[in-house]
Every structure is written in C-alpha cells, then in structure tokens.
Amino acid sequence: MAINPGFVPFEQIESGKLTGFDVDLSRALARRLGRKNTTFDQLPFTSLLPAVTSGRDQVAISGILDTATRRKQVSFSKPYINDSFVISIKSSNGSVKGVSDLSKANIAVQVGTIPEEFVRAKLPKAKIVTVQDTPSAFQLVAQGRADAVITDAPVAGYYVKKLGGSLKVLPTPLNSAQPIAVVLPLHSTLQQSVDKALAAMEADGTLGKLRRTWFGSSDLNGGA
Asked: How far is CA 166 from the centre of its chain?
C-alpha cells in the first residue's frame, strides 16, 4: 500500500512508528480482504498515484481526494470520509477573516495536493510556499514565515489542537465536501472487493469508530 506519512491525522510517524487513520483503515481493510500482512510503501505525496499506475503498489491509501482529473489515471473506491478545505492562521491574527483577505499573502500548502491547486486558482497573486508534508506547513505559520495554511478540515483541526493554541482554524469551509477514497489501478480486479469491504465496515461501525478516534466524529461528513 502506497502512503505518504506527512498528513496528520491520516498518517504520520510518531516515536518512529507509522500511525494514523489511514494506517488503521489499511490494516482493517487488509484483514477484510483476507490479507495476513499489510506492507506500507512510504513515498512522497506526488509519487502515490504513479506507484499505483506503474504496478509498484496495488493501492494507495493516503487521504487522497477523488477528482475527475485523477480518475483519468486511476480508479477510486467508495469514499471513507468527505472533506472540505479550511484556513489556519496564527491565533493572534485578527486581520484574516476569509479567503479574500489572503489575496497577496504567503500561503503554505503541501505540494501536489488539491489544496495547492485550489490556492493557485483562487489566489493567483498570493505567494505559494510549497512543502513536502503538512506539518511543515503549519510550522511555517507558527514561526511567522507564512501567513496561512490551506488544507483539509480534519487535518487542520487535529494539528491546531496539537500545537496548543498558537494557531486557529477559521470556521467557514472554502468549498463543498469532496470524497476521500482508496486509490486503485484503472479496471482493478480489487475494486469490487474493496468497495464491498468498505461498505461492510461502514455498516458494522468499524469506519465510524476509526473516524471518531482520529477526527472526533463518526460521521462520514466529519471532515466537511
């Protein structure tokens, strides 16, 4: 399974160990599919889809948004959470109330992500600071080297809480909720089995329990 361990709380390294929502989901899904072992191929985010299309990995599970553009290269399972984007800024910043206040700001985003595409389209005059992982983006804002982070709502909520009050999340989502799902090769023979397993995990409460553990809500729209 291809994964990028820089997207808390979906996946991260803590005390030298890979952990997070997607890690727990991957292991539970593998068991449902009758796989005894789960092997994680840790890669940069921009390498996840190529790892699947090249056959290096059977699937990628790493907080990946299902989009029409990506569906030209890969297939997606049924969603396991729906997600929207939010702005995170310093708690002391009283001047930024919404996206229009960031028109000429320094904005940190993880490279190769849909939030990066969103920022480039919505804020063409802003200075985009790209980083390889989301924690680095939040650190740039905490250090005063960027004015804001735009990223997924569950990621922002988790990381702002972890930083203990130095940052805050603006309450209004920037877009309608989008699905996050398992990535598979086009026409994969695993597609039906993965969708069936995810449906069973939703029905028996497994997915809800994982979402509550990592995102604070069992709802499928907990990231919206």
From this structure: 22
3-state secondary structure of 198: helix
Cα 198 to Cα 29: distance, rounded to the nearest angstrom: 7
Q: What is the pLDDT of residues 5-64, one digit of tens each?
A: 988 899 999 999 999 999 999 999 999 999 988 999 999 999 999 999 999 999 999 999
Q: Which of 176-208 are b and which e, b meaning 16 or more Cβ less than 10 Å from the residue's Cβ? A: ebbbbbbbbbeebebbeebbebbeebeeeebbb
Which token pair is 162? 């972890």
What DSSP character marks residue 102? Answer: G
Query: What's the pTM?
Result: 0.81
Of the candidates 183, 181, 175, 159, the one whose C-alpha atom is nearest the C-alpha of residue 224 is 175
DSSP per-residue letters across 113-129: SHHHHHHHHH-TTSEEE
The conformational region for residue 83 under phi > 0 = left, psi -120 to 50 = alpha, else beta, is beta
Position 186, amino acid: L
User: Residue 161: pLDDT band by 50, 70, 90 thresholds?
Assistant: confident
Is the CB of residue 196 less than 8 Å from the CB of residue 202?
no
Q: What mean pLDDT do residues 110-139 have? A: 94
Element (H, E) at 197: helix 191-203
